[in-house]
């Protein structure tokens, strides 16, 4: 397999030693709206949050969500909404592509923020002036309650000319719904970003993430088929081979562009990356997507970067403001160059974009 090193891998150890990860969530409901506010990650002085908005009233063509922070928190960066703040009061307004919400429809946005004395979940929200009433109960759950692992979701070949996504769970890893949900959210955000940049985007399947019960434990994926002392590619290489064999997928495959993530990693040794037609990522990326390892914009930008490789782009030779360089850390404030857009559309998977 031809591989490309993920630019961000060298920074993972530093992130892991400085972050105290928590997961807090709250929701409020009313006749007209429902809001879910989730603290996806938290570290000294900063945090990442995701906000999901569901319209329970009449269809709307634009929305404004308001809330107030209770402990001096401040929004520092946002995506999928225009977020402003005056004192404790925060206002989030839709962007061009997510303002229309039918009855029962949902959208989401995310942001990074700062905190000093505390970071409690907001207790009330309004959507277009309508109070989303209900009991808001903050919860802290660094480790989700394990549930019984389901059988693998793949039951047949999904539609062709789509992006096919897998989460491979080794035999000694407890099933955790945050992983398929989180990886799906990262893929949907990448889907949105590609439409923003190219005017076209890829198609995801109805089951966005196919959960695969692996054939081996974590240690097997980490230590098997390694070359000497270099374990960087062992985990993702073993996952890659298993997925291709079990689901009859080639490398590359003209039917699908494939993304595989595995919940296994040797600390400071395992990595991931992409080549034409495939993205293969190890444990820290799966953890990040699930909201337990770092601010979400880093994982959104990382997926956009790796998908760029899968669509045929090389790394940039400098930090040039495009997601094919270390500028993906600044996501969503990074953009493909015109040359990169042309190369994606003219590349081997350009025909997948519509």
UniProtKB/TrEMBL annotation:
Annotated ranges, domain CBM2: 26-135
Gene Ontology BP terms: carbohydrate metabolic process
Pfam (any one): CBM_2
Gene3D superfamilies: 2.60.40.290
Keyword Signal belongs to the record: yes
Region of interest called Disordered, as start-end residue ranges on this chain: 137-159
GO molecular-function term, one example from the UniProt record: polysaccharide binding
Alphabetically ordered keywords of this record: Signal
InterPro entries: CBD2 (IPR001919), CBM2/CBM3_carb-bd_dom_sf (IPR008965), CBM2_carb-bd_dom_sf (IPR012291)
Annotated Low complexity bias: 137-148
Signal sequence bounds: 1-23
Protein name, entry field: Cellulose binding domain-containing protein
Taxonomic source organism: Actinoplanes regularis
């Amino acid at each position: 397999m031809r591989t490309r090193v993920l630019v961000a891998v060298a920074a993972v150890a530093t992130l892991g030693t400085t972050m105290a990860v928590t997961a807090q969530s709250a929701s409020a409901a009313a006749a007209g709206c429902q809001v879910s506010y989730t603290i996806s990650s938290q570290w000294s002085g900063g945090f990442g949050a995701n906000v999901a908005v569901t319209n329970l009233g009449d269809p709307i063509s634009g929305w404004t969500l308001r809330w107030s922070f209770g402990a001096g928190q401040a929004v520092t960066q946002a995506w999928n909404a225009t977020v402003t703040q005056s004192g404790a009061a925060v206002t989030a307004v839709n962007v061009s592509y997510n303002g229309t919400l039918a009855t029962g429809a949902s959208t989401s946005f995310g942001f990074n923020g700062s905190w000093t004395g505390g970071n409690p979940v907001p207790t009330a929200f309004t959507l277009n002036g309508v109070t989303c009433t209900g009991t808001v109960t903050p919860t802290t759950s660094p480790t989700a309650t394990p549930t019984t692992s389901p059988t693998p979701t793949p039951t047949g070949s999904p539609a062709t000319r789509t992006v096919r996504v897998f989460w491979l769970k080794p035999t000694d890893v407890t099933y955790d719904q945050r992983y398929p949900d989180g990886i799906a959210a990262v893929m949907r955000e990448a889907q949105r970003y590609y439409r923003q940049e190219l005017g076209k985007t890829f198609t995801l399947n109805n089951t966005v993430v196919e959960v695969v019960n692996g054939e081996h434990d974590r240690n097997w994926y980490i230590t098997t088929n390694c070359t000497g002392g270099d374990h960087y590619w062992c985990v993702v290489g073993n996952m890659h081979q298993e997925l291709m064999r079990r689901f009859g997928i080639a490398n590359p495959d003209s039917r699908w562009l494939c993304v595989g993530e595995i919940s296994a990693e040797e600390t400071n040794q395992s990595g991931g990356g992409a080549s034409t037609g495939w993205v293969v990522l190890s444990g820290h990326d799966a953890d990040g997507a699930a909201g337990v390892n770092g601010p979400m914009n880093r994982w959104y930008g990382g997926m956009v970067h790796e998908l760029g490789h899968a669509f045929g782009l090389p790394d940039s030779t400098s930090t040039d403001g495009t997601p094919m360089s270390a500028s993906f850390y600044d996501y969503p404030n990074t953009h493909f160059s015109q040359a990169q857009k042309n190369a994606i559309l003219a590349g081997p998977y350009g025909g997948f974009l519509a």
